[in-house]
Amino acid sequence: MSPSNGDSVTRPLSGWGRFPVERCHIFRPEKRAEVGKVLASRSAPSYIPFGLGRSYGDAALNSDRGVLMLNRLNRFLSIDPQTAVLECESGVSLAEIIHFFLPRGFFLPVTPGTKFVTVGGAIASDIHGKNHHRDGTLANFILDFKLLTPGGEVLLCSPTTNREVFWATCGGMGLTGIILSAAVRLQRIESSYVLVDLQKTENFDDAFGLMGESDDQYQYSVAWVDCLAKGKSTGRSLLIRGNHAATADLPPNLVNPFPVPAEPRLSVPFDLPAIGLNRLTVRLLNALYYRRHATVMQQLVALDSFFYPLDAIGDWNRMYGRKGFVQYQVVLPLENARDGLLVLLEKLRQSRRAPFLAVMKRFGEANPGLLSFPMKGYTLAMDLPVTGGLVEVLHDLDKLVLDYGGRVYLAKDAVLTAESFAAMYPKLDEFRAIKEKIDPRGVLSSSMARRLGVVKD
Ligand SMILES: Cc1cc2nc3c(=O)[nH]c(=O)nc-3n(C[C@H](O)[C@H](O)[C@H](O)COP(=O)(O)OP(=O)(O)OC[C@H]3O[C@@H](n4cnc5c(N)ncnc54)[C@H](O)[C@@H]3O)c2cc1C
Description:
Blueprint: E1 9-14, E2 21-27, H1 32-41, E3 47-50, E4 66-69, E5 76-80, E6 85-89, H2 94-101, E7 106-107, H3 119-124, H4 132-135, E8 142-148, E9 154-157, H5 163-169, E10 178-185, E11 187-188, E12 193-201, H6 204-214, E13 220-225, E14 237-244, E15 266-267, H7 279-292, E16 296-302, H8 303-307, E17 313-314, E18 325-333, H9 334-350, E19 358-363, E20 377-385, H10 390-403, E21 407-408, H11 418-424, H12 428-438, H13 447-451
Parallel strand pairs: 2-4, 3-4, 15-17
Antiparallel strand pairs: 1-2, 5-6, 6-10, 7-11, 8-9, 8-10, 12-14, 12-16, 13-14, 13-19, 18-20, 18-21, 19-20
């Protein structure tokens, strides 16, 4: 059955981390006009929009309530080749934009580590990419969007029109309304290759030194941190930085500067037992990865492998076993980042949790988004399989992050407490006031919003 309008299907649902899994009533509108009908039908006590479920935790879940799957709203509405402004429905995925517009010389202005997210989901999380230090979040490139309010009105929001709602919605995790469509300014590029420099760093000091000194020369910068290195080597990493390759950077014999990206080659068809990722495996993987790459400069790398290495393995989230995993992503302000990240990694080591993937980026200035994640500083993200005691360990780490003036990213979160959340997001009251005004009857809610006390039960 294809649930649309007032029809729903009830089934267990999860985000990308497969933790938690919750029973939700799923509605799947086919057209923009149907979204309002579902909301008005009040077939469920509340609703939350759902894009492609690439947020890791419960941001797009609504236990025993309604979830509005919006990936059928996937039409391109217009493109202006002069200004590079694309207008599309909110369920269009970044993969669809790349597929259609990359061969025509346009790329996303900001992209996460997967292209399987929707435009609506990306705005609602106010996503950042490897270029935050230079370009900021996606919100900087949104000219405007049309928001269906819980009261049924369609509101045009931009940094100048309905400004407060715009900045509550960018990063607002779907709680202010349903983004129906958006106008996004794409960037023009000359090829689908990136010119990459790879450098090893000895520890955090070395990594911060290099990133602080020369990140500005690169549009994209990311460090892969070996979380198991100890003592003076804590924070040793592989720094991967690059710029889009211009026509002049390409070999003269290259026929097509925009080859079509390959489809995923591998997939994980079943749940691997979590033992497959035990500490030993992780240590080995880390060491291998670290040794394989010497310092390499000006390497031409295909855009897909540079931005989306994990997309090449379909359903890689199953590698963490049936219990799933949490991606713990924090940002610490510039002045505290070094000390805070050292303590954080030490605590994780003591708890014998083995992060499989730890990725560090440098953030530029924060924007006016009320619940937007980035602040000037360094962010670290790591995957942690769900095993006994993980939640307690993360709550402990949350306190540490707070002590250092940092915060946790909602798009990845599954466990933060309402108390820590309120302390991490100082504009929460402003957000609540706007939410109350735009949604007095509490039509939009999510499991995350209730857990974090953004809305009442
Ligand atoms: C491998 C991987 C790498 C990632 N890398 C990054 C990264 O580098 N940077 C980064 O910032 N994020 C990153 N993410 C997180 C991801 O970009 C965000 O979680 C994004 O919001 C997912 O989009 P989605 O369409 O899947 O939305 P969902 O996960 O389905 O929903 C996310 C939020 O958006 C809301 N939402 C969805 N659609 C709408 C709509 N139309 N209107 C209003 N609200 C809506 C939902 O209610 C929910 O609160 C990564 C995720 C993965 C799996």
